[in-house]
Each structure stands twice: as C-alpha cells, then as structure tokens.
Amino acid sequence: MYRYRDECVQVFLAHPGGPFFRRKDDGHWTIPKGEQHPGEPLLDTAIREFGEEVGLKPGGHFIELGCIRQKGGKTVYAWAFEGDWEESWPLRSSAFKMEWPPDSGQTQTFPEVDRAQFFPLDTAQHKMKETQWPLVERLLDVLKRGQPANFAQGSTSPRH
Length: 160
Fold this sequence. Notes:
- The protein is of the alpha+beta class.
- It has one domain: Nucleoside Triphosphate Pyrophosphohydrolase (Alpha-Beta Complex).
- It is built from 3 helices and 10 strands.
- Strand 6 and strand 7 form a beta hairpin.
- The chain is globular, with a radius of gyration of 16 Å.
C-alpha cells in the first residue's frame, strides 16, 4: 500500500511478530505477504494475506509489480494499491503458534505482524528487507509514468 503525504510517496510496511523479531528493526520490516493456497490466483492471495496480516481489505487499482526472490529463496509476487491507514485503527493480525522458549515443551501464540505503519521512502529503504526494495522502485517507476496498463480494480475497506 502506498499513499501521498506532503507530495511525497510513503509505503506501508509490517514488522514480523514473534520472539525472533522482538528486538530487530532495520532490515526486517516487510510488505504484508503470505502463502498461496492451492489453485488460488496470486492477486487473490495478495489481497487475502494483506487483510489477514493487518486487518485492512485492500482495494482500488492494483498495480502489478512482478516478483523478487528473497535471500532464503522464497519468491514474492507483489501488487501495489493506493490506500491509507489511520493511526487509530487497531492492528488485526492473524496468529501463529510455536514452541517457546525453545525446548520448553510450552506452546505460545504470537501475532504474524506486531506493528504496521507508513514510512517515507528514505526511512522505508532502511527498515525493509533489502531484497524487497526493488518492488518499491518498480512502484515509483510506474507512478512517474502515470497509470499503468495492467491493473485490476476493487474497493478498500477495513476488515471486521
């Protein structure tokens, strides 16, 4: 998700939840993303996962940004849309369970995302995973050229 503030583009990033990321910041924020269900179209996956991770159903014109490969080998397909996030909106993230502390035999539940917010581009570049930055560059190229030829349409509304 992106927005304009004071004539500048800002991008929306999510911070992964759980104990491994509790004290990690720069270089660990990410675009909201997730796993594709069998047979699910990629854009539908992106819309569903965004909603599950932050509690906002994305919509509007979706700009296809292609894909990148992360350092761990995972391929990420991405779309952008213009939207907004009010600071007063509660973050509603799906959760995962894991054994914590390690080898304790105890299972704890953690949110997939523990923080989400917009960042100006210079800050976003430091906050997000380095391998995802080309997606932002592609978005900026599209915005400089104007409306792209390849877009889909929907509506933006908070998920309940």
